[in-house]
Amino acid sequence: MRSRIIHLALTMFLALVVTTPAWATIIPVEEAVEAVSLVVRLDDDLTGTVAGRSCGACELKRFPVTTATEAYENNLRVDLRRLLDQHGKPATIIYNLRSGKATRILWIR
Length: 109
Known about the structure:
With 109 residues, the protein is α+β, with helices and mostly antiparallel strands. The chain has 1 helix and 8 strands, in the order αββββββββ. 17% of the residues lie in helices and 36% in strands.
């Protein structure tokens, strides 16, 4: 009988430990804009801005591009200069909510 009580207590403890992370508060760090037409300004030092609209009538959202911004074409990381080829084409801009800077820009050819 005593071993059953210990077994039951251990099972309840493990169930509590496994479900504890579910009580955590999720704090978003990044957000994304799926742009139908990208607007790109990139200087020689790989800084500038990228902007896009989610729809034709939607507000244009601008984000600073830094040397830390990454570019991905077909899920493969490419040189940030390739972003210039995407001007006027669809892409996804992922940006940091706190700084407002573009962290990643993704597109598919």
